[in-house]
Design brief:
Length: 189
């Protein structure tokens, strides 16, 4: 603020004519420049009215300003129109996004239920297969145990018979046991 005040104060004081240099005072240099420009215009434009030239310059400047204002108003109108179109598109896109969101959530819930049901059915099938496998393995194990018990009993009986029986009785017992094994084998198959 002090510089502006100093500039106005220094208008009344002109530097001495003996010094030449760069004057940084804007207001005093503008006055000097304006007087030089007007002097040149008057000197070279003797046949042209200085006020007419200045009036033409001002009219041209006024027309350019008016054209700029008109162009700015047209651009502003176009921008407002584009803004309204963009807002309408935004509202439309927001509605579509909401619809997609709602549809997406319902689709996700539907897929979730389908997946749960499918998984439940798969688990039921696996449980059924597991139970069948367990039953099969139990039956097979029971059959193996029966066969081993029967073989051990048979070997024990044969051992007892061998020690107690003579050869003829021994051969008849073996034949009877082979017959029983054959009939048991047919039953198990």
């Amino acid at each position: 603020m002090k510089n502006v005040t100093d500039s106005f104060v220094s208008l009344g004081h002109w530097p001495s004519a003996g010094s030449f240099g760069f004057n940084a005072d804007i207001l005093s240099t503008n006055l000097i420049n304006l007087s030089v420009v007007l002097g040149v215009l008057i000197f070279f434009g003797k046949g042209v009215c200085a006020s007419c030239l200045l009036s033409d310059l001002l009219d041209n400047r006024k027309q350019r300003i008016l054209n700029t204002i008109r162009n700015s108003e047209e651009l502003r109108g176009g921008a407002v129109e584009q803004l309204e179109k963009a807002r309408a598109r935004l509202r439309k896109v927001e509605l579509e996004a909401d619809q997609f969101r709602v549809n997406g959530y319902s689709e996700i819930e539907r897929e979730k239920l389908n997946l749960i049901n499918s998984t439940y059915k798969t688990l039921e099938q696996l449980e059924h297969y597991k139970n069948e496998t367990i039953q099969f393995e139990q039956q097979r194990t029971i059959n193996q145990v029966r066969q081993r018990v029967f073989q051990q009993a048979l070997q024990g009986a044969l051992g007892t018979l061998n020690s107690c029986l003579n050869n003829e009785l021994h051969l008849r017992t073996i034949s009877a046991n082979i017959g029983m094994l054959g009939s048991m084998k047919e039953i198990t198959d």
